[in-house]
Design goal:
The chain is of the alpha/beta class. It has 9 helices and 9 strands. It has one domain: Rossmann fold (3-Layer(aba) Sandwich), CATH 3.40.50.1110.
């Protein structure tokens, strides 16, 4: 393709980058150094960053999103510019309650009787860590594929790239050491992480989108990983910063931006 001039980014917190200063949009918990910003800066092109922490495939496509602090965002796809040359998409984790479940499990271990546990349980609907079924994976894959198709409809010349989630947990992650929660919680969360990877593979296959497998790129960079350089923040118990827990750090965002730039070569 010709040299891109406009990049648009759709997605949830693994694209938005809560916890990485400075913030481009505090209400959206969107960093000015997330992977869309770093990628656009490498190419020297205009960026339309529509990512919002907490987004689901539905709030990207059709439903308005109201954040925990009351900020309201229209469906992200509505802001997609028709002249976008590249569209990146990172979503699905909140559909499967992945990061929220990690955070709730961490707080249950850190302060089991605290207000954060009650708030997170209420926000997530209770019931502990979910065990995703094949139907759950299919629903996420379908949502991602619908985003790809709608992005192509609204920006006909765009190259749409699915970017899956950096690996947060792995074989080297030690319960009660690298993460606060016990082994049974870690095992349950690893199942959600695997389901999320599978959903992106299925979505790419059925939509024809390219897939940048950040989950593979980050192998060894999970919490407790062999590389000893995690690309994910660990648990942050300070209340004002706890939303950054288990999200990409700057090194992780830079790795994705670099891989996207290589994909264009």
């Amino acid at each position: 393709m010709a040299q891109p001039r406009v990049i648009a980014a759709l997605g949830s917190s693994y694209a938005a980058g809560p916890g990485i200063e400075p913030m481009a949009d505090t209400a959206a918990m969107r960093s000015a150094r997330n992977y869309p910003h770093l990628f656009a800066a490498q190419l020297g092109v205009r960026l339309v960053d529509l990512t919002v922490s907490g987004a689901t495939t539905e709030t990207i496509l059709e439903n308005a999103q109201t954040t925990m602090r009351g900020a309201r965002f229209a469906p992200q796809i509505h802001g997609l510019p028709a002249d976008a040359d590249i569209v990146t998409v990172t979503a699905g984790g909140n559909d499967l309650r992945f990061v929220g479940s990690m955070l709730a499990a961490a707080w249950r271990s850190h302060d089991p009787d605290g207000a954060m546990v009650r708030m997170l349980d209420e926000m997530l609907g209770g019931g502990g860590i979910p065990d995703p079924t094949d139907a759950d994976v299919e629903q996420v894959a379908d949502g991602l594929a619908r985003i790809v198709r709608e992005a192509h409809r609204r920006a006909p010349r765009s190259r749409v790239i699915l970017v899956d989630y950096l690996t947060a947990l792995g074989d080297g992650t030690r319960p009660r050491v690298d993460v606060p929660f016990p082994a049974e919680d870690l095992a349950a969360l690893l199942r959600i992480q695997a389901a999320l990877r599978d959903a992106h593979v299925r979505a790419a296959e059925r939509s024809g989108a390219e897939l940048l497998a950040a989950s593979v790129l980050s192998d060894g960079h999970e919490l407790g990983g062999a590389a000893r350089e995690p690309w994910i923040f660990g648990f942050v118990p300070e209340l004002e910063r706890t939303g950054a827990s288990f999200h990409p750090n700057l090194a992780g965002m830079a790795a994705i931006a670099g891989a996207l730039a290589e994909l264009l070569d």
